[in-house]
Every structure is written in structure tokens, then in C-alpha cells.
Amino acid sequence: MNEIKFSDLGLKDTLLKSITEMGFEKPSQIQAEAIPIALEGYDIIGQAQTGTGKTAAFGCTIINGISKKDGLSAIILSPTRELAIQVHDELRRLSKYDNLNILAIYGGDSISYQIKALKGNVNIVVGTPGRLLDHIRRKTLSLDNIKYLVLDEADEMLNMGFIDDLEEIIKQVPSERQTLLFSATMPDPIKKLAKRYLKKDVKHVAIKKTSMTVSKISQSYFEVAHKSRFEALCRILDFDQPKSSMIFCKTKKGVDELVECMQARGYVVEGMHGDMSQAQRLRTLKKFKEGSLNFLVATDVAARGIDVEGVTHVINYDLPQDVESYVHRIGRTGRANREGIAYSLVSPKEYPMLKQIISVTKSEINRKKVPTVDEIFKNKSNNLLKEVADNIEASDNERFIPIAKKLAEKYDAVDVIAALMKSSFKDDLFEFYSSNELKAPKADSEYVRLFFSIGRRDGITPKTIINFIKDNARIKTSHIGDIDILENFSFVNVSPDNKDKVLNKCMGVKFNRRKVNIEVANKKKKR
Question: What is the 3-state secondary structure (H, E, C) of 202-246?
């Protein structure tokens, strides 16, 4: 039986062009089964675990059915701001050649900016239920002409207490719309919701849950700023000195650029992606299997089906688009029941994807510090000492003894050894590194999350809550991180050094005639 391709699903050419550029050749199971049915106009209940490609399943359906001139035609509900941003970003990539305007709206972002953006020609809105309701009530968002309604991760929205908000929003959307409901599980309240608001001829697409275990593989991640990604990779490779490693990039262009940079630094590396001929790919793969290449840089598509013994490291230079791809990538190591190592370089924008990978795979992915120059030098020196010791014990150095004696006669033995070590390090261009230590970017993980007993009903906006904290605790805006504003309460991230200031100076102070209670947020309260 032939494999299904995106070109077999009935999608328009502009959408297929975007999909090809994103590096996807064949649809996931949920995409292959849901898209053709959705294109026929049926309501859908898509049941599949997180990380299986549900975003593209509903995204392709919507983008295939609308044009820029149609105005606001689709509304997508997501449980969290992080997921809303992910969906927004993927839909933008999918709609590249249709030039659709897509807007993400969620709590913690400027509502005045969102109101201004909604006045423009927006085609698709992706948002969290609370903020969407906020705009509906303010009459800054009209759902009168919506053709597509998507409930994404419906079970998560139920778990977070959004079921009433969902119903209120659904009632505002025209009944002749097409509804696409996606959920990993189908608890009773979601079944009732579907029965009440989806059409009678709704189609149920259920994808069997597959195991996403990677127990034999040691997984770690490094926090890196985007501009420092290449230097971080070089430090990691120079420290670990893997004999055989696969490095993954999201795009073909990314592969070409990384290979060029690595070759300039002296690494024995080649790339593999979809623009290369089959003959080129086979030649590169042959070299990698034979060990004449230490590193192979590839896209997900190009690496599919590659089975090479002895790959000790898999490195995600970019995190993939979905969890399934992550599992496939790191499965290139730890073959034949051996242990393997998987590293991921993660910038602050990629933290939500990392959290999703950890949640779905139930993996322990430890944070590691990018090696310093001193640590790299020490590790390489230890490896060299071991190599020398092994050669001495092997007692097969007779050919070199006359040279050693001549040097010993003329120079001090320590000076001779130091000079030889310097010579062995001549290809290690430590001057490439900007400093001894590569500092990690400041991330939300470095903030403390505080619960505030005031929310939208009290007239709170990101600007007013920032001013409230600044005026009372006397801290700078730069020490305040993400802000999530809900109906009755809010969450604010502050730097650890300023946590006590906020608790002591803002607690009990009135905002709009209400005393504010503040406490360190319980993890269960997180949005």
C-alpha cells in the first residue's frame, strides 16, 4: 500500500507549497484521517494524544477554506497562552502563501494592542477562553461571520475550569459553522458539550494511543540565547567529543548554514535534506555509516528511516514542531538496547515545547550548563593523558624512542611534553569562544510566580498591575516577567530577589477599593 502524502488530501497548491517548505512530506495519522473528512464540511471530533500533529489537521482545513478577503472566518480556542502562541506560529507558517492575517489573543498581553489589531482585517483568531470572552463582552470581537470554530485540547480546557466560558463563546458563533473539536481524552462533560453543539452527522476520528517512551536514552537540555546557539553547540561537542553524532535542524536552510559554520571550525560534517538528490543522500549516509563523517546534520524528513549503529549523541539544534518528531529524532541513538545521549539547545521561546515533550513522553530531561572553556580544556587534557598512558602500556613505541631521547638530551622533559601537548591542541581554536563562560538567557524558570487576589473584574490590565507593583514595591519593570490575568485573580512572575519586596510592600494595599492578597502561587494554580 502506498504511503499517503499531503498532495493526496485535496489541499490547494499554496498550502502544499507552505507544507513542503516546512519540511513535511507525509501527514501524521490524525492529519491523514481528519483533513479529507473536514474538507467535506463535516464537524469532527478528533481524539489523539498531544504531539501528534492536531494543529496542522485543523489548520490545513481552515486555511484551505478561506481567503484574505473573507475577513474574520475562524476562531480557535486554546487552554493556555503558550499553546495559543504555538498554534498562531504554526498557522502563520502554513498560510505563508495565502497571506492570511492571524492574531493570538491571551491574558498578560496588552488588551489595547489586541483591540487595535482586531480592527484590522484579521482572518483567524487564536485565543484563550478568558481573554476571548473579555473581547466579546467589550464588543471588540464579533463572531457573526465565523465559518470555523476549533476547540483545541478540549479536555485541558475542562480541567482548567473553562467549560462555562466555552459554552458562552460557542453560543455567540453562527450555528451553520463547522466545528472541529480535538482532545486527547473524552471525559463526560466534553462528550455532552459535543452532543449539544456539534452537528448530528459529526465524524469521530480516534487515533490509537502509541507509546512514546525513550527510557534507554539520557536526555538533557541547555538553555541558550538564540545568538549563542552555534557557540553553545561547539562547546558541547568539544567537551563530549562524540565519535558519531546526528544533529537536527528544522529547515533545509538551517542545515546548510550549520554545516558551513561547522566545517569552517574544522568539524568533519555533512548535511542531508530534501533538496539533495537521492544519490547525494546515499553517498553522505555511506560516509556516516563507515565512520569517515563524525557528524551528520539533517532535517526530520531526510533522517526518516536512517538506522546507523554506533550513534552516541543526538543533538536538537532546533526543537522540532511536535513531540512525535522529538521521539523519532532521539531514537537514532541508543540502538540495539545500548544507552544513548540526547541533547537539546533550548531558547526561551522554545520552553513551552520542551514542557510539552516532558509531559507527553514522561521523560526526565535534565538541565545542563554549557561547558566553560576551562572545563573543555581540562576534559580534553584528561582524554589526552589517558591516550598517552594507554600507548605507554601498549609498549609498541620503539619507533619513536630515538626521537624522544634526542629531545630529552637537548631539553627539559617537562618542556618537551608541554610542547607536544600544545601541538596536539593546535586545532582547538579556543579563541573562537567569546569568554570562559557562556551565560544562559534569563528565563521564566528563574522567576517566582505570585498569586494576586485581583483580576479582570477589578479592572486589572498588565499596565495597571505593573504600575501597582512598581509604585508600592519600588522595583524595576525588568524584574517583572509574565502576567496572566483571569476573571477573579491574576498571576505575576517576579525575580526571586524582589519576591519579598512585593509580598511585604503590596500585600493589603488597596486596588480600586479592594485589599490585595498576595502569595507564592501553588503549582496547581498555574494556567
Answer: CEEEECCCCCCCCCCEEEEEEECCHHHHHHHHHHHHHHHCCCCEE
Picking from 293, 328, 135, 123, the residue whose alpha carbon sits closest to that of residue 217 is: 328
Tell me if residue 42 falls in helix, strand or coil.
Answer: coil
What domains can you pick out in the chain, each with its CATH number?
Answer: 6-206 (3.40.50.300), 217-370 (3.40.50.300), 374-432 (no CATH), 447-525 (3.30.70.330)
Q: Which three cell numbers stand for residue 193?
A: 458539550
Q: Which residue has the cell 471530533?
A: 45
3-state secondary structure 425-484: CCCCCHHHCCCCCCCCCCCHHHCEEEEECCCHHHCCCHHHHHHHHHHHHCCCHHHEEEEE
Determine contact, residues 506/471, Cβ cutoff 8 Å. no
Rg of the chain over CA atoms, in angstroms? Answer: 28
Q: Which residues contact 526 (CB under 8 A, 6 or more apart)?
A: 449, 491
Tens of pLDDT, residues 267-291: 999 999 878 887 888 899 889 988 8
Q: Which residue has the cell 546557539?
A: 229
Give SS3 for 168.
helix
Rounded Cα distance between 174 and 187, Å, is 26
Q: Over range 57-66, report the average pLDDT.
A: 96
User: Residue 297 — φ and ψ, nearest 5°?
Assistant: -100, 125
Q: Are 417 and 200 a contacting pair, CB within 8 Å?
A: no
Distances (CA, A) of 33 to 17, 44, 203, 354: 21, 11, 11, 27
59, 102 in Cβ contact below 8 A? no
Backbone region of residue 478 per phi and psi (left: phi > 0; alpha: psi in -120 to 50; beta: other values): alpha
CA–CA gap between residue 287 and residue 337 (Å, rounded)? 24
Please give the mean pLDDT across all residues of the chain.
86
SS3 199: coil
